[in-house]
Amino acid sequence: MICFLEFMKWMLKDSIFVENILVEYAKSITNENISHSFVISVKDNGLKSRFKQHRSTITGFNLKPLPAIPDDFSAHLAQISALEVCKETERTVENYKRTIEINFESVDDGSYDD
User: Fold this and answer.
1) What is the pLDDT along the chain (114 residues), one digit of tens a residue?
2) Partner residues linked to 11 by β-bridges
3) How far apart are CA 50 and CA 105, in angstroms?
4) For a Cys staple, 39 with which of 7, 34, 50, 81, CB 3.0–4.6 Å?
5) Residues 46, 43, 14, 11: is their CA dihedral positive or negative?
6) Minimal CA–CA distance to 1: which of 22, 33, 16, 23?
């Protein structure tokens, strides 16, 4: 049995403890689920229904803003995407593989003609 100290639990506005709901939900699920590790998944429909009234509080709790991406970096990423660097690299690797295969086939097998 899991025991949480009341003063350490996350209490929502209407005196509901998140941990209590999460434990009850986790106990009700027979298959493997992320809630068994006390992780709240906002994509889990079963858990969503239990926290319906408190969804904005939970999903926004201790939320850190994403850092701004400088305009010049965004432009750089756009250039890379436009150049199709990945496809060029892939073609280069394929050409290199073919070259190695051709060279390997032409390598002497070690036998000598006397």
Assistant:
1) 455 788 888 888 788 888 888 888 888 988 888 888 878 776 788 888 887 787 777 767 777 888 887 778 877 777 766 666 667 777 777 777 777 666 555 545 554 454
2) 17
3) 66
4) 34
5) positive
6) 23
Measured CA distances, 67 to 35, 55, 59, 70, 107 (Å): 29, 24, 18, 9, 55
Q: Would you tell me how many other CB atoms lie within 10 Å of the CB of residue 82?
A: 8
Q: Which of 45, 55, 43 is nearest to 18 (CA)?
A: 55
Alpha carbon distance 42, 59 (integer Å): 7
Q: Which two tokens stand for residue 93?
A: 């690797």
The residue type found at 97 is: K
Give 17's strand partners: 11
